[in-house]
Amino acid sequence: xxxxxxxxxxxxxxxxxxxxxxxxxxxxxxxxxxxxxxxxxxxxxxxxxxxxxxxxxxxxxxxxxxxxxxxxxxxxxxxxxxxxxxxxxxxxxxxxxxxxxxxxxxxxxxxxxxxxxxxxxxxxxxxxxxxxxxxxxxxxxxxxxxxxxxxxxxxxxxxxxxxxxxxxxxxxxxxxxxxxxxxxxxxxxxxxxxxxxxxxxxxxxxxxxxxxxxxxxxxxxxxxxxxxxxxxxxxxxxxxxxxxxxxxxxxxxxxxxxxxxxxxxxxxxxxxxxxxxxxxxxxxxxxxxxxxxxxxxxxxxxxxxxxxxxxxxxxxxxxxxxxxxxxxxxxxxxxxxxxxxxxxxxxxxxxxxxxxxxxxxxxxxxxxxxxxxxxxxxxxxxxxxxxxxxxxxxxxxxxxxxxxxxxxxxxxxxxxxxxxxxxxxxxxxxxxxxxxxxxxxxxxxxxxxxxxxxxxxxxxxxxxxxxxxxxxxxxxxxxxxxxxxxxxxxxxxxxxxxxxxxxxxxxxxxxxxxxxxxxxxxxxxxxxxxxxxxxxxxxxxxxxxxxxxxxxxxxxxxxxxxxxxxxxxxxxxxxxxxxxxxxxxxxx
Length: 588
Known about the structure:
Elements: H1 5-13, H2 17-22, E1 28-30, E2 33-36, E3 48-51, E4 56-59, E5 65-66, H3 68-75, H4 80-90, H5 102-129, H6 135-143, H7 148-153, E6 157-159, H8 165-172, H9 177-183, E7 186-189, E8 193-196, E9 201-207, E10 213-220, E11 228-230, H10 246-249, E12 257-260, H11 263-271, E13 277-279, H12 287-296, E14 299-303, H13 308-323, E15 327-330, H14 339-346, H15 348-356, E16 359-360, H16 361-370, H17 378-393, H18 398-412, H19 416-428, H20 440-465, H21 470-476, H22 485-499, H23 505-510, H24 515-524, H25 534-559, H26 565-581
Parallel strand pairs: 12-13, 12-14, 14-15
Antiparallel strand pairs: 1-2, 2-3, 3-4, 4-5, 6-9, 7-8, 9-10, 10-11, 15-16
Helix pairs in contact: 3-4, 5-9, 12-13, 14-15, 17-18, 17-19, 18-19, 20-25, 25-26
């Protein structure tokens, strides 16, 4: 961690989770908790709960959960230190300086300086577009039917037709030549020395997810080449790790993101209300881009140009997105080339309809393969079905293969059984496919393990809701009785808190900075079992304690070394305590 545990805890306690989340989600009190519509998935009935006593949130629909730091990390896509800083600022706290090595300090200072120079350049370009010098660029943007509000939101600007204006402006502001070179805003050669990289271009500031200007793209005014020019990679700009428009799209809260080709596609889509559109920065989609997209969505709509280059770009992107675990569909814009043309011709409703009917990526790939075969020739048509069968055989899951066999059979008028036999032949002949393990005993064991984990989560939840149970529970259930490593760690921390009279589950979450771990910890403190009344709950607690203790004894019995006499005695004592649990009285 970048800050001490005491500092982190002070920041957390000075930011009540209900107050913070109320700034993002409309909450209503129900009993001891507050409920609202989950901001992390689409729902019509509120399943998102915020507990003032636990200082935690949890969605019973999608499983999102954590403390106030987790919420900002998930909602704003902050890193943990950024969430700490934002909440400290909110509480009026001044954080201590973080300690850096000399090299790290130099890198940090350089990044800060480059970001500041980029900010100055963006303001300069922005003002120049709105000055008489920018009239030609403004006319171009107006012809593209961009509103003043859209231009403002994306910070659009203009680089002068003279190749030294930005250089002279930055020199007046006291920026050194070395820093200008580091920023990527300048080019250098022996004849001209240092001069502006961008001139006579409409300027598109490129921002990171937090809205900081990290680079620029420029479209030339005239016939010069290249038509579009991007900043080179710098200490703050890596085009393979950033997506244009993501700083806005990530807050759109749509279940999918639209990925298109260029700046103008993104801007046009946002102006039309599709604020979940992004684009790669003058490069093909990369695995790094796919990983970034996965942070924000499980589904992508590819909206590439309908020409040959756009089709190739889609075919390259599909496997990368699949590897990242993203479901992909492909939007068809024919007879129009790009989203801007389509929306201007047919409007937003028609574009939304195309989104709703976007093609499954596998079926899109198959439609491209189909073009290589003469579907009127029986032999060629058979070879096409063979190619389709080989692609289907590549799916790992049997149910997935069955679904695609059904889809292909329906789309291409071939019998399901006929297609299925072709796929099975491919599998028999060794087309790569990892079959699902289907031993019944293993599945039964998995369900049993899942049941005991639920019981263990219930105990931790009840201990946070009824701390008075601790004396009874600790005499029966030890932290080592919890099966999962993370469960054991959380149980140990909660037991230690309760031993010292503390009841602070949100503080425990601070120790886990990975979002997935925080989600699991939140689930540990928010597991429910349906009961009608207090008597039923007391009975459920007693039965759950018995189940967890019994499971712990069974596990230790399996692992016990027959020569371990001390361990054997402990096991005998545990079994005796298990019998005594039948007489245990639980009172809430």
